[in-house]
Amino acid sequence: MTGEFVAFVALAMVAIGGGILMLNVTKVVHMVVSLVFTFVSIAGLYVLLSAEFVAAVQILIYSGAITIIMLFGIMLTRHQDEDEPSAGIGKKLIVFLGIAAFALVMYLGIYDLQLGEEQADLHVKNTEQIGISLYSHFVIPFELTSVLLLVALIGAIILARKDEKGEDEK
C-alpha cells in the first residue's frame, strides 16, 4: 500500500463520515461543522488528483465563504426548534436501499469507463490550463452560469422582501 492510497482512503472516509454525520445530527450548527469536514476532505482529494488550484478554490469558497454565509443565515433567521419524531425502521431501510442502489449504479457506470488514451500532464501549469480552457472553450457556459447566479440572487432578494412585507402585515 502506498502513501497515496492510504491518504485517499482516509480522506474518503472523512468525507463520507462528514456527510453521514451532517444527516444524523440534530443541531444546525453541528451540521455546518460536519459539512466543513466534508469540504476540506474533498479538497484533499483534489490535491491527490494534482488539482491544487481546484483544491484551493474548494477551501476558499466552500469551506470559507459558503459555510460563513450558512452560519449567518442560521443565526439571523428565526426558526422553530421543534423536536421531530425519529424515522421508523421501515423508512431507514428504504433510505439505505436507495443509497445502496445508487452506489451500485455508480460503480457499474464507472468500473469499465474508458476516457480515451490521451493523457494530459496535470502537474504542469494546471491553473493556466484551467484558465485557457475556461476562457477559450467554455466561455459561453461560464457567462451563462454567471447570469444564472445573478438571477438566483435577484430571486432570493425578491423572496426575502415578500417575507418582510408578510411579517409587517401581521
Automatic annotation (TrEMBL):
GO terms for cellular component: plasma membrane. It is a multi-pass membrane protein. It comes from the Bacteria. NDH-1 shuttles electrons from NADH, via FMN and iron-sulfur (Fe-S) centers, to quinones in the respiratory chain. Couples the redox reaction to proton translocation (for every two electrons transferred, four hydrogen ions are translocated across the cytoplasmic membrane), and thus conserves the redox energy in a proton gradient. Gene3D superfamilies: NADH-ubiquinone/plastoquinone oxidoreductase chain 6, subunit NuoJ. It is an enzyme of class 7 (translocase). The keyword Transmembrane applies. NCBIfam families: PRK06638.2-3. InterPro entries: MFS_trans_sf, NADH_UbQ/plastoQ_OxRdtase_su6, Nuo/plastoQ_OxRdtase_6_NuoJ. Belongs to the complex I subunit 6 family. GO terms for molecular function: NADH dehydrogenase (ubiquinone) activity; quinone binding. It holds the Pfam family Oxidored_q3. It catalyses: a quinone + NADH + 5 H(+)(in) = a quinol + NAD(+) + 4 H(+)(out). Its EC number is 7.1.1.-. Keywords: Cell membrane, Membrane, NAD, Quinone, Transmembrane, Transmembrane helix. The chain crosses the membrane at residues 6-25, 32-49, 55-77, 89-110, 130-160. This is NADH-quinone oxidoreductase subunit J. It is found in: Cell membrane. Its main location: membrane.
